[in-house]
Structure formats: C-alpha cells, structure tokens
Amino acid sequence: MREDTEVDTDLAQAQWETLIRAYRDHGHRVEFIEPVAGLPDMVFAANSALVLEGRVFGSRFHAPQRRPEQLAYERWFKAAGFDVHPPESVCEGEGDLVPAGPYVLAGTGFRTTRAAHQEVQEFFGVPTISLLLVDPYFYHLDTALFVLDDRNIAYYPEAFSPGSREVLGRLYPDALIATRDDAMAFGLNSVSDGRHVFVAPRATGLIDQLTDRGYVPVPVDLSELHKAGGGIKCCTQEIR
C-alpha cells in the first residue's frame, strides 16, 4: 500500500498459486476471473461483492483507482448466471460484509458506509449488524474478524468501537479473541470452512488457539500480497 515498497512479483504469483492448491487439496472448487491490465487490486476478489443464497450484491469502491473493477466482476457474475444488484452507496463487498449464521456482520468507519448496510439488509432480508472500525490498520472488517462456523467468530476487540465490542461480546461470548500481533500478521484475514482454517503462518498465537478449539489450521503464506494490504480472505470471494 506504499509506493516505495518493492514486491517480488514472481513470489507473489507463487504464493497465490499455493493458496489455490490449498483450497483444492481440501475439497474446495476454485474458479478464476481474467485479470484486466492496470487493475492489480483485482487479486483481492473478496471486495467485488457479497454472494449469499445465490444472490449477488455488488460493489462500489471508495478508491477511484478500483472502481473499474466493478464492471469486470459484474460481467463475470452475469456470465456465470447471476443477477447483480449494484449498491447505491460505497460498499466493498466481503471486505466489510461477513455472513455469520443468521446475520450479516457489516463493517464501517473507513470504506463501506452505514447506508450500504441498510441496502444489504433490504436486499437479502437478513439482519445486518453495523460494527464501527476505529483503528486505521484494520480498515476492512475482514482484517479484524472472521467467521469460524455458523455459531462463532474470531476477532480483535481493539479494532472496534466500545459499543461494537459490546455487541460482539453479547452475540459471541465464546469467540476466539486474537492478539494485536496476530491481527497485524493478517491472522484474521482467514477463511474457515467450519473445520479447516486457511490462516497466515505468522499468526502463531491464533493458530494455537484454533488447534485448542478443535479446528485444523492450514497455514498459507501470502507475505508478498500483504504488502498491498490483503491476505487469504481478501483473495477469496466465496460463492454461497
């Protein structure tokens, strides 16, 4: 996310391919969208939409540089047979919209707006719970929280406002609580299928907690992609 940072593009490509293999090795189907020249952030597919019960709520990016991605992803979804609802408000897909059992947990404060949360609730008819992010290091909800299964989550409390922390504490009293070190290592930018958790290897404390809870951590190193502000979840758009 800083222009003076050098990225090893060959290593970034290899790490991305390692993530693909990890998903396939654990029984998941992976599809791809063709990249568009000049849009390097397309690799962060999670920001393109929220797909829930076969319905697609699209994106409207905060940054002008990313807005052309909206059309590319919309074309992909339509070619795959989906209708796409374009939001009226700024909304960055699964970066800030996290399906969690009977709810959609929705982040705001840096990118996605509260007005978009209202649109999501009206579109899906699913209770959508607004959570205020207050630490600029955790500018998307998927950097501060991920869903373990239909009943529980993992999160870093200090990324949230006091009221939002209280909401999460009431909803998820048995949540896995991450340290700042693990959160800064992109440990919460993880993907769980309910048993296997695809997680950044440097989040060692989080990995230990996951193991103690009976989950199976699958470490995947995306350190080169971290330089651009994303990790495992950012690279993964889940088609529900």
UniProtKB/TrEMBL annotation:
Residue numbers annotated as active site: 140, 234
GO MF terms, alphabetically ordered: amino acid binding; dimethylargininase activity; transferase activity
Keyword Translocase in record: no
Entries under PANTHER family matching the protein: DIMETHYLARGININASE, DIMETHYLARGININE DIMETHYLAMINOHYDROLASE
Protein name stated in the entry: Amidinotransferase
Family annotation (InterPro entries): DDAH-like (IPR033199)
GO biological process, one term: citrulline metabolic process
Keyword annotations: Hydrolase, Transferase
Sequence similarity: Belongs to the DDAH family.
Organism: Streptomyces violaceusniger
